[in-house]
Design goal:
392 residues; mainly alpha; 3-stranded antiparallel beta sheet; globular
Length: 392
């Protein structure tokens, strides 16, 4: 009498399609997935613990390395939490708020470009990868002009920005944003009507709205299942309530629906960028809080008072009042939250990060069980995870 048994295999942590050092233990019946167990922790760097031994300013560079594809979104969530803790949220200058929106939306496009490039490559579409990285390179060039760094850009500060925008960079950003729709048209021309792409993504990795909410999915992974929720609109920050944009929602809950949501988000992000550029007016870029904000560089290099001011903040930091706060923002992958606890010292007593990739990854077993092995690759891609913020 013939007997059958399941087979357990490892996928990762070195497998390229796991999008980082993720290990999946897959139990297979032929090519059908019986169970999937994610194993994480290979990239753990102790960011939350490290912050307890650094001042609030010194913690900012640690956030760049979380979702390293969206560094300015990470920066924004953290500085908003510190500003809320200090009670200076209403003192942030208008120019600083507009620049923050401008650059985090540029970051959203940058993150989605890497998602689309790698997701398409996983399924076998190489041309899209080259196109997306062409546009990503343009954004990285803008990053470099603004902050001096191409990938882990560190530009936002508690109270505002580290420096004003360099001359001419707004023209570069406007040109890119105006062309973005034509780039998305190219991606859609290659993929959306492609029969192979449709067969690999439609009805693959399905999850219902109820299950998505129960698990805690956010971002495009949630909106692809029909849940109309976006923190920029529903719990606005940095002046998002003053911008006109649509939140794309799809009802199918599959990989194709999440793909459509992200494509539309890129178009909407470009629309927000153009609105931010139109709003951008001359003015201060730092709040009037001398005990918190670093002095302008020209004061540091030209006056002894400015030098002493910078030295004291850099070496001693600033004391935050006792208390606890939570701030969540709509990062490219979903809700990115920072929970800060202060004991009145110059260092965070506790920092807990709510990364969207970590929560979204929880849905993977439910989305792939009963599917084929090849569908696991498509589903990992559609969740758009980054292990830097999962392991922290």
């Amino acid at each position: 009498m013939a007997q059958t048994e399941t087979m357990t295999i490892n996928m990762g942590p070195q497998h390229p399609s796991t999008h980082g050092v993720l290990q999946l233990i897959l139990e297979l019946d032929g090519e059908t997935v019986v169970s999937a167990t994610p194993h994480i922790g290979f990239l753990h760097r102790g960011v939350e613990k490290l912050s307890e031994h650094r001042t609030y300013h010194q913690t900012i560079p640690l956030t760049d390395r979380l979702d390293y594809l969206a560094p300015m979104s990470n920066n924004l969530g953290y500085v908003l939490a510190v500003e809320k803790l200090l009670g200076i949220t209403d003192q942030i200058p208008e120019r600083a708020k507009v620049v923050r929106v401008l650059l985090t939306e540029l970051t959203r496009i940058k993150s989605h470009l890497v998602w689309l490039a790698t997701h398409a490559l996983d399924i076998g579409a190489m041309t899209v990868f080259i196109y997306c990285f062409r546009e990503r390179e343009a954004i990285i060039d803008i990053y470099e002009k603004i902050s001096g760094a191409r990938m882990t850009s560190n530009y936002f500060r508690v109270g505002g920005l580290s420096a004003d925008l360099p001359a001419g960079v707004t023209d570069d950003i406007r040109k890119f944003a105006e062309e973005m729709n034509s780039y998305v048209d190219e991606y859609e021309g290659l993929l959306t009507g492609n029969k192979i792409w449709q067969k690999r993504t439609q009805s693959v990795g399905k999850i219902s709205a109820e299950d998505a909410i129960d698990i805690g999915l956010t971002g495009p992974a949630l909106r692809g299942s029909g849940v109309d929720w976006d923190l920029r609109r529903d719990n606005p920050y940095s002046g998002y309530e003053d911008y006109d944009f649509e939140v794309p929602v799809r009802e199918e809950g599959d990989t194709f629906a999440r793909y459509q949501c992200r494509l539309i988000e890129m178009r909407e992000a470009a629309k927000i960028i153009l609105q931010a550029l139109d709003k951008l007016e001359e003015g201060p870029i730092l709040a009037d809080c001398p005990k918190v904000c670093l002095p302008p560089k020209q004061d540091v290099v030209n006056t002894i008072e400015g030098l002493i001011h910078q030295f004291k903040i850099i070496t001693e930091g600033f004391e935050a009042p006792e208390g606890e706060v939570y701030v969540g923002i709509e990062a490219p992958k979903g809700e990115l939250g920072y929970y800060l606890v202060s004991d009145g010292s110059a260092n965070p007593y506790r920092m807990k990060i709510r990364p969207p990739s970590f929560v979204n990854l929880q849905a993977l077993p439910q989305m792939v069980e009963g599917a084929l092995l090849a569908d696991v690759i498509a589903t990992i891609g559609t969740l758009d995870i980054v292990l830097g913020e999962i392991d922290r």
